[in-house]
Amino acid sequence: MATSHGNLLRGLPLRQIACLVPIAAVSIWAAQHWPLITAGGSQLLSANQYWLLLAVTVTVLGWVAVSFTRQGATLERLPPLRLFVTQFAAGAANHLLPAGLGAGTVNLRFLQRCGLSLPRSSAALALHMLAAGTGRAVLLLALLAASPHALQLDDLLPHAAGPVLVVAGSLVCVVAVVLVAVRPLRRAIRAFVDTALRDARSVHTRPARVLALWGGAVAYPTLQAAGLVAVAMALDVSIPAAHVGLAYLAGSTLAAVIPTPGGIGSVDAALVIALVMAGVSVAVATSVVLGYRIITVWLPLLPGALVLGVLVRSKVI
Q1: Cα–Cα distance for residue pair 157/155, rounded to 1 Å
Q2: Region 288-308: what's the mean pLDDT?
Q3: In angstroms, rounded to a whole number, what is the distance separating the alpha carbons of residues 259 and 248?
Q4: What are the tens digits of pLDDT across the range 25-52?
Q5: Residue 304 in contact with residue 103, Cβ under 8 Å?
Q6: HEC letters along the chain
Q7: Which stretch of 120-124, 202-206, 290-294 has the lowest confidence by average pLDDT?
């Protein structure tokens, strides 16, 4: 019986099926969110097309910035075109799984296909995440220092933030205790940390890698914030551009604590709240966020899924 099942599995076109999975998943997701897509699209029809074109441009440049950060986190030279295309496809994968797992899985496979071992690929992903989080935090703090009264940050936090933080902190402590207490996990973590630290030190001995890593880490959130500013300008939002950019950084950082696929729902709500706190009406803020998400998420989603399928079929990932 086991042999017959094995023969059946070997007879299935598994790679072809894997190519269709992201396309099917994206189609289902788009059907579920179709009312939001059409509502946001109707708002964009009457918007300033030049500002919308700028929003599309900075969105594409955002994938370039991510590509630079990925290269900066890796000692080996990665094929530039395949690296860029993989980041585009990873954007689609990121909206199928929560907490960046989709993009992480795609990039892990890509790095392994480029010849990196699993520990070193994981270390490169960890360094990228550290740089990306640091770049976003530095940019947010810089804008807060420049415009300290642009946002009422206390209003951005829910009333139950204290208990939520306590629960989250308790879970982190429990996980840490488990990781320390279980010897095989402890050995695996120690080996990973050693590999990550060794590669991070090596990367930072190369000025070109340092510039790519940290320059891309700051450039990506800057470009994403610029995209929201461009959509706001297209819809004639009359608040300073710096306040809109600060609203993006605060809202996206707040949404990071709620790991939904691609931030769908959590990012939208947090951006609307942040824009309202920056002085935009609820109706206008909702229109801006819907337009922004159409340009940065929904329009690239199906092409990204198609590219992801091609990358799987051609064994790039």
Answers
A1: 5
A2: 86
A3: 17
A4: 545 655 655 565 565 556 676 778 899 9
A5: no
A6: CHHHHHHHHHHCCHHHHHHHHHHHHHHHHHHHCHHHHHHHHHHHHCCCHHHHHHHHHHHHHHHHHHHHHHHHCCCCCCCHHHHHHHHHHHHHHCCCCECCHHHHHHHHHHHHHCCCCHHHHHHHHHHHHHHHHHHHHHHHHHHHHHCCCCCCHHHHCCCCHHHHHHHHHHHHHHHHHHHHHCHHHHHHHHHHHHHHHHHHHHHCCCHHHHHHHHHHHHHHHHHHHHHHHHHHHHCCCCCCHHHHHHHHHHHHHHHCCCCCECCCCHHHHHHHHHHHHCCCCHHHHHHHHHHHHHHHHHHHHHHHHHHHHHHHHCCCC
A7: 290-294
The string of pLDDT tens digits covering residues 157-178 is 444 445 545 655 666 677 667 6
Between CA 68 and CA 219 the distance in angstroms is: 10
CA quadruple 158, 162, 165, 171: dihedral sign: negative
Cβ burial, residue 295 (10 Å; 0-12/13-18/19+): buried
In one letter, which amino acid is 91? G
